[in-house]
Amino acid sequence: MTFGEWQQLRPESAAREVRRRAEAHLTPAQRKTAIAVLMDETVLAAAFAAAPPGSSLRGVPYLLKDMFDVAGLPTFGGSSFLPEVRPAPGRDSGIVRDLGTVGAVMAGKTQLFEFAWGLTGENAHYGDCEHPRFPGRTSGGSSSGSAAAVAAEVVPFAIGTDTGGSIRVPAAFCGIFGYRGVPGDEWITDAVQLAPSFDTVGWFTRSASDMRHVVGAFVGLRYNERTPNGCYLEMPGLDPEVATACREAAAELSRPADASTQAELLAKFAPAAETYGVLAGLESWKIHRKWAEKYRARYGPLLQDRLDRARGISQAQVAAVEPSYEAIRLTWTKFFLTYDYLIMPASPFPALEKADCTQANRLRMMALTTPASLGALPVLTIPVPLPSGMSTGLQVVLNHPQSPVLSWVLDVCRQSSA
User: 80 an active-site residue?
Assistant: First the structure.
């Protein structure tokens, strides 16, 4: 169902349809690992009825990653203990209030990788979030439940967060659109933090048309009469079928980067995963160190390992990566003097099986996602189907959230799917 089709339903019918879809489109096990809270049908119907008439997203339901507060509901952040160490939410997060102003209806909250500190859909407390169409494979993370719910057509859009790729990877794995904003905006400041210098808010939709609606309502769409100038950067380390599919999909939007540009970008981006790991890891440790000892047994094994590594980050390590951090940011500045956008693969492989959710594959994903994270840049992820029936994605990296490239790319995507 499109946004428009949801808006044609009466409040009681819309509330019933949300719950019906959750039960029909996800197995009981999938619901447990994807959805943290689904609002009662009566409460939902009242929320649909209260949506402001004429508002841009009136009557469109969404699910919210459980990193944001909703008054009266606990915020767990994928953990087992967060409500015990954090005050109970007294009011809704800013993004929830603003979504309500434009008429969107919060239907519930979604599960995630514990504290949003990972790119797979694993969670030791609530179970691993599977891809809704490929059981045994991950939805990607950390915004796992939000991506799975949109891919399964439970709701037409869902809110996520992206620090090092947590919207881009699940969008690619689940074959849907994803939008990542920029660090420091008003919507991310009252979310549960992971690494504040890199945390961003964003969302998923199934179609380019629906993505246009959300971006138009919250970011604003700008247009430019000239065709934007961009290029495609083919990255190393991709599975062969992914490399071919991304190259062919990117050809509809841009030409390949010339040899000089490709060489410079690859050289400057090469240390991105390591650089991000040190800088974001140190910020994450500063947030978790007040809980790390007392609640160690309440963290899952993956988080215990990440905490141990983050605890050991030294100032010498930080000093060692600072030059590459500055070089990456300068490279982006230089790139956008000539180009309007850069296209990169969003994942090096399709959705992973549990046994393949390894540190080595995590680093392969981060090699693709962390250059934009370090540049503090907005990114639109568009789905790319694979011959296997699974999917990957393309990152369209922009220099500003209101870049005219955004509307242009979504128009191209709409036309190609028509």
Answer: no
Active site residue 65: yes
Per the CB < 8 A criterion, the answer to whether 170 and 147 are in contact is yes
Instruction: Identify the CA nearest to 155 among candidates 378, 351, 5, 350.
Output: 5
> Exactly one of 142, 146, 209, 254 is catalytic; which is it?
142
Residues 146, 85: Cα–Cα separation, whole Å: 25
| Identity of the amino acid at 325 | Y
347 contacts 382 by C-beta, under 8 angstroms: no
pLDDT of residue 211: 97
Cα–Cα distance list, 287 to 65, 196, 317, 380 (Å): 19, 9, 19, 28
361, 141 contact by CB (below 8 A): no
Q: How many Å apart are CA 35 and CA 66, to the nearest integer?
A: 9
Pick the catalytic residue from 166, 209, 254, 373.
166
The structure tokens 């004429």 sit at 54
Domain boundaries, the chain: 1-254+341-418
Residue (of 176, 173, 183) closest to 214 by Cα position:
176
Length of the chain: 418
Sign of CA dihedral 243, 377, 174, 417: negative
pLDDT, mean of each 10-residue run, the chain (418 residues):
95 98 97 98 98 96 98 97 95 97 98 98 98 97 98 98 98 98 95 98 97 94 93 98 98 98 98 98 98 98 98 98 98 98 98 97 98 98 98 98 97 88
Token code pair at residue 406: 């955004």
**Structural contact between residues 67 and 191, judged by C-beta atoms closer than 8 angstroms:** yes
Instruction: For residue 93, indicate whether it is catalytic.
Output: no
Model pTM score = 0.97
Alpha-carbon gap, residue 289 to 46, rounded angstroms = 42
186 in Cβ contact with 391 (< 8 Å): no
Cβ atoms of 56 and 188 closer than 8 Å:
no
Closest-CA residue to 412 (of 208, 133, 114, 265):
208
Sign of CA dihedral 212, 35, 92, 50: positive
Q: Which two tokens stand for residue 234?
A: 């083919």
Dist. CA 252–CA 249, nearest whole Å: 6
Domain 1-254+341-418 CATH assignment equals 3.40.50.720: no
